[in-house]
Amino acid sequence: MAFEVELKKLGFSDKEAKVYFALLELGSSPVQQIAEKAAVNRATTYVVLEALRKRGVVSVVEKDDKTMFIAESPRTLLRLFRAKEQELKEKQEEFKKALPELEAIFNVATDRPRVKFFEGSEGVRAVREDILRSGAKILYDIYSLEYVDQIRSLFSDDENEDFLKKRQEAGITIKSIYTSDTGPFAEFKLKGERKFLPKEKFPFSGDVLIYDDRIALTTLKGRIMSVIIESKEIADTMRLVFELAWIGADHV
Fold first, then answer.
1. Which class for 82: exposed (0-12), middle (13-18), buried (19 or more C-beta within 10 A)?
2. In 3-state terms, what secondary structure has residue 69?
3. Measured between alpha carbons, how far is 145 from 198 in angstroms, rounded to an integer?
């Protein structure tokens, strides 16, 4: 019943809700009658009624040497709501006191690299979305040009165009080192700096992306697998490695 659901929101157990609702319908009643109406065994009904009495929503009267129970007006439940609100405020204030210490623990923990592992096209999609969310303005990329074609084939033309458009709108420029079986590529859609390396010397079959404080690695041999590593120190180190490779590319 909807009413019983509302009672449970106030912290009533399933049996407490049934017993209280039964008592509302019956009026002043003995335990046996309440138990039958609520479909709860008599011994449990006694325990439940005592709990409800302590909460102030049930009262007890003696009538003709019999113990009778009466449900208090449902308006009494408003008091329980107010008590819940007050309890929540007190817990919130206690949590606020503990928050600085918790944040300190969190900040220490975030110094450790965070690693996310993905498989298949969803991994590539996760990397794309992470790039757009990161706020990075320069995307460092080491990849095989054939890799790009293979990755694009995982998505529709509309999805690929949408990603390129969003990357442009985010103002992300490219600095990349790429390999290809067919030699340097003449025309790229996105502005940026690029250097070519012959694939016979550098048989690269994956993709390494460095952006903001993250590195994304994707391999295409066998199953497509992607890993995102979030660590400022590792990302900064990989950018230095990229710059070394960038200088070295001039001498290949």
1. exposed
2. strand
3. 11
- pLDDT-derived band at 236 (thresholds 50, 70, 90) equals very high
Those residues whose C-beta lies under 8 Å from the C-beta of residue 242, and which sit 6 or more positions away, are 140, 142, 175, 177, 210
The 10s digit of each residue's pLDDT in 30-76 is 889 988 998 989 899 889 888 888 888 888 888 877 888 888 888 87
Q: Delineate the domains of the chain, giving CATH numbers in brackets.
A: 2-76 (1.10.10.10), 114-249 (3.30.870.10)
Structure tokens at 135: 């706020």
| Positive/negative CA dihedral, 232, 235, 239, 241 | positive
Q: CB count, 10 Å around CB of 106? A: 9
Rounded-to-integer distance, Cα 72 and Cα 53, Å = 9
- C-alpha 235: how far from its chain's center? 24
Q: Is the pTM here over 0.85, yes or no? A: no
